[in-house]
Write a structure and sequence with these properties.
The protein is mainly alpha-helical. The protein contains 51 helices and six strands. The radius of gyration is 35 Å and the shape is elongated.
Length: about 1000
């Protein structure tokens, strides 16, 4: 038998004790209906005294009310204390003590009490003190945080406005030439949204005093409020350097908001940096700056400001709310929950905090906990739209579309101008297979969205719906628009690839997949896996068509593109060369060939191709970015920076351009500037952990260890399956000389990806820093078999060669650098030059000066900028006077590879001399005896150890290309032969 909810009348299941539609609870209803005596019994001391104070206020007994408030504060939690102080301010207001009322309400607000009534009370107190411009600031704020329930405060506006009008009229009658009264009245009109009169008064003040800072600020704010961003920038600029810090602060804040309207992200960031300098160590100003960044949707920078604030004042609870909200926007829901929970512990009934934490719970896939928070928020504010939106998302996550529909219709009934509400309703209808209604909702969301990324989200959702019902042309159009509005979002390009694959437009599909990889290189492996079937099919189809139509150069170009995606550099290069032999001015193919050269380390050739394209297409910002990468690799930093700046001017919202600029300025030692670049990259693509990792490493250079670790932790939490995050954190601990923790992080990186090169290099760096050179070369030798890519194998050999070099084993080092040089020659000219340079130093350490000279001269001619120390080394080699350059390392004594003890009589090796032999670099062997390991040595050395009686049965051996140990008697059968 069904029953009805007593509140919303919705049908409930039999014996239901709660309603999922409106939040009604039988337990709560029973609690509210107990008799007064029982209710008093379950109240805290604070509740009883607070209610007594309210009752005394209603009777007009203010003295008793103040005593009850004082008694209540003895049992108060932090939130209750703020509530009691605010009530004490209200009592002072009722008594006509406006100064005390202002002081008490201000104390409560500063402690984190963000209650609309308290701001209204302070507005009344300030109105009584005749500071109407501040009163209207409070009144405007009270209305903005009333969560759709501003009816209580709206009538105050005309009442206060009339009082202010009469006050300023009298003042201006007495002092008609005093600009203060004009700009203050203008401020009141501005907050009351009477913009015409506000502008009139600000203009009048400026006629009397052209240096009146607040009049300029007020006039700029009027232009900002009326949508004239350009004029707001122009007016605010007049007083951004005003000697009064408060005026300068207000002007810069206004101009930063105005820049965001006129699409001036660089200028906006510059103003925010100036505000940061003005704030210094002032906690209140830092909080204001963090709030401003939050309002400008600069989530990462908001978090950074809150980190600073918490370091300065760990008890600043308001920063926890702001940081938690920003972290949730960045997708870092786990950390957001921690911050918001800490705030909610102090303010359990805070509507906004509960809603934000509910959204964070959705982010970590805990819809049940989210629903509890949204229900609690709505108990305090039944018309709070964000809580209804959150409730709808939570029900959608639980696949309860009927409950989600109820919540979303409630939200739309309160406010039908929220683009997010239409997006959610569209998703509900999509799940219900009502695709046309979903498309209508997504279209409405696009129409009313204010910001580009919001519109991009609508296009993305509408595109997926068109794709679902087979409307591929419409889907492609939507995904293209989304990618233009939000170019750093890889998902748009993945969907474009899916659409083109269904249309058998192979080259476009692969192009889109490559764009996805460029947007999010950290996910390259995932995208390659997704796109490999598409690219493989493209190669097969195109090859058949080329065989039939040999003269069609377009087919060759498309096949080259497919080969490029599959990583088949030689085949791709052959196809692109064939295209360019026929059509020299095919700019797109020349860009592709330049990318292949760049990937192969042939940066000089890459620069030639990119330059060819730029001369014919000066606004091709992507090619400028690619050329900057190659120039940077060649050590030509000035032209590289020029290219990056031009690329940013042409496309200021491209995240990877800001990342590269950050790396460049960090190389120059301008670490703070680099951090600003990384912040911009994060702002344009908050879901990418890469700039966050780089920012963390940059903060390490500023010795901001806590902030650096915080950024690195977030990067790991955003992509826990990505080894790069653990490597960056390992580098942090390595620099802090916390070697055990660093080793643990690098091991985690290896666990994520057993072939992750930087994890191995990082762990070897830890061992070297601990002075464990022998352990380093043993560990790297045992890791050689993991690396199938020649480039990665060469990097490991370089690392092992440097370990040998520091041990003084120059012959071993020369062997490793020579092997790396051979591998690099066909892959990367720059890296090959680096291997040759290191080999030259090893030759010098071994006393082979002529061999060293040949290597140094060869690379010095070709790469003079990349290796600026070569002339000094050659000069020292010629004169040999004075100490050697610092690059030439001379250990105190040469280390020796330990040998196993002689454990038996000598025997003669009678097996096949070539058995088990292998070419370098795998001709390195390790011997294990119990827990001890010896080596790495060559097969020839191993043979000598056998003849010397150092090897016997029971031991194990491993060769450089093996992944497992083998019993030594498998390699040396002589050990199994019985003597004579």
């Amino acid at each position: 038998m069904a029953q009805q909810c007593p509140d919303c009348k919705h049908e409930l299941a039999e014996f239901a004790v709660s309603c999922e539609y409106c939040g009604w609870s039988l337990t709560e209803a029973i609690r509210q209906n107990v008799d007064l005596a029982d209710k008093d019994a379950i109240k805290t001391g604070y509740d009883l005294h607070y209610e007594a104070a309210n009752a005394a206020i209603e009777r007009g007994d203010h003295a008793t009310a103040l005593r009850s408030i004082a008694r209540a504060m003895l049992d108060a939690t932090p939130q209750q204390r703020c509530e009691a102080i605010a009530l004490r301010g209200y009592v002072a207001l009722k008594q006509g003590d406006f100064k005390t009322a202002d002081s008490d309400c201000s104390e409560a607000i500063k402690s984190g009490w963000n209650d609309a009534r308290t701001f209204a009370w302070r507005a009344a107190a300030r109105s009584g003190l005749k500071v109407f411009h501040l009163a209207f600031d409070d009144l405007a704020h009270a209305i903005s945080i009333s969560h759709g329930e501003s009816a209580e405060f709206d009538p105050l506006i005309p009442s206060f406005l009339e009082q202010a009008r009469l006050f300023y009229q009298n003042r201006l009658t007495d002092q008609p030439h005093e600009p203060t009264w004009f700009w203050q009245r203008g401020w009141v009109y501005m907050r009351a949204m009477v913009f015409e009169k506000a502008e009139r008064d600000f203009t009048a003040a400026l006629k009397l005093d052209s240096n009146c800072g607040w009049a300029w600020v007020g006039l700029a704010n009027v232009k900002l409020e009326t949508g004239n961003g350009d004029m707001a920038v122009k007016i605010a600029s007049k007083v951004t350097a005003h000697p009064d810090r408060d005026v300068a602060w207000a002007a810069l804040s206004c101009r930063a908001k105005a820049w965001s309207l006129v699409d001036g992200p660089e200028a906006c960031q510059d103003d925010l940096e100036r505000l940061s300098e003005l704030a210094g160590g002032d906690s209140e100003l830092i909080l204001q700056l963090a709030q401003l960044r939050y309002d400008l949707r600069l989530w990462a920078a908001t978090v950074s400001d809150c980190d600073t604030l918490i370091r300065i004042n760990g008890d600043n609870i308001q920063s926890r709310l702001l940081r938690g909200s920003a972290l949730a926007r960045l997708g870092n829901s786990a950390l957001a929950v921690k911050d918001l929970s800490r705030f909610i512990n102090a303010f359990p009934d805070h509507c906004l905090a509960l809603t934000e934490r509910g959204n964070a719970f959705i982010g970590i896939n805990e819809p049940d906990r989210a629903l509890k928070d949204f229900t609690s928020a709505l108990k305090g504010h039944s018309r709070f739209v964000p809580a209804y939106l959150g409730r709808a998302r939570a029900y959608l996550l639980r696949k309860k579309t009927d409950l989600a529909s109820v919540a979303i219709e409630k939200a739309l009934g309160i406010d039908d101008r929220q683009h997010e509400a239409y997006e959610i309703r569209g998703q509900i209808r999509f799940q219900e297979n009502d695709y046309q209604s979903a498309i209508d909702d997504f279209s409405r969301a696009i129409e009313i969205a204010k910001f580009p990324e919001q519109k991009a989200g609508g296009f993305y959702l509408r595109g997926t719906t068109h794709y679902e019902i087979g409307q591929l042309d419409l889907a492609r159009s939507d995904f293209e628009t989304a990618s233009q509005l939000r170019p750093g979002h890889a998902g748009n390009w993945i969907w474009l690839a899916a659409v083109d694959a269904r249309r058998e437009q192979w080259s476009s599909a692969i192009h889109s997949l490559q764009r996805a990889i460029n947007c999010r290189p950290s996910n390259a492996k995932q995208y390659l896996t997704l796109g490999r079937p598409v690219a493989t099919s493209a190669v097969e189809n195109l090859t058949r068509q080329i065989q039939r139509e040999n003269d069609d150069i377009n087919l060759v170009r498309d096949r080259g593109l497919a080969y490029q995606f599959l990583g088949k550099t030689g085949e791709a290069l052959a196809d692109f060369n064939k295209v360019l032999e026929t059509v020299e001015d095919d700019l797109e193919t020349r860009v592709r060939r330049g990318q292949l050269f760049q990937k192969s380390g042939k940066h000089i050739e890459a620069v030639k191709d990119f330059t060819y394209v730029i001369r014919r297409d000066k606004i091709h910002h992507t090619v400028r970015y690619y050329r900057a990468l190659s120039l940077f690799a060649l050590g030509q930093e000035s032209p590289a920076m020029s290219d990056v700046l031009k690329a940013l001017k042409l496309s200021p919202r491209e995240s990877r351009y800001h990342v590269l600029r950050g790396e460049m300025v960090q190389r120059e030692g301008r670490v703070k500037r680099a951090i600003r670049c990384y912040d911009r990259a994060i702002a344009f693509d908050p879901g990418d952990p890469a700039p966050r990792r780089l920012k963390g490493l940059a903060l390490m250079d500023l010795n901001a260890a806590e902030a650096a670790l915080s950024e690195l932790n977030r990067a790991v939490e955003m992509a826990p399956e990505n080894a790069d995050g653990y490597v960056a954190r390992g580098q942090f601990y390595l620099r802090a000389k916390q070697f055990d923790q660093a080793k643990l992080e690098f091991d985690r990186g290896i666990a994520c990806n057993p072939q992750h090169l930087r994890s191995y290099l990082g762990k070897s760096a830890v061992l070297i820093n601990q002075g464990l050179y022998h352990e380093t070369v043993l560990w790297l030798t045992k890791s050689l078999h993991r690396f199938t890519e020649k480039r990665h194998l060469a990097e490991v050999l370089m690392k092992r060669g440097r370990a040998f070099y520091q041990m003084g084993l120059s012959a071993f080092a020369v062997n490793d650098f020579s092997s790396a040089l051979v591998l690099f020659k066909k892959l990367d000219e720059t890296s090959a030059a680096r291997a040759r340079y290191d080999r030259a130093l090893a030759y010098l350490q071994a006393g082979q000066s002529e061999s060293a000279r040949q290597d140094l001269v060869k690379i010095g001619r070709r790469y003079p900028l990349a290796f600026p120390t070569i002339p000094a080394i050659i000069e020292w080699m010629n004169r040999r006077d004075g100490p050697p350059p610092s690059e030439i390392y001379q250990p105190d004594r040469m280390a020796k590879i330990p040998k196993p003890k002689i454990v038996r009589s000598a025997i003669k090796l009678n097996g096949d001399a070539g058995a088990w032999s292998v070419a370098p670099p795998y001709d390195t062997w390790i011997v294990r005896v119990d827990e001890a390991e010896y080596g790495p040595v060559s097969k020839a050395t191993l043979d000598r150890w056998l003849e010397q009686g150092r090897l016997t049965t029971g031991m194990k051996v491993m060769r450089g290309d093996w992944s497992r140990w083998k019993h030594i008697e498998k390699v040396y059968r002589e050990l199994l032969e019985k003597p004579g």
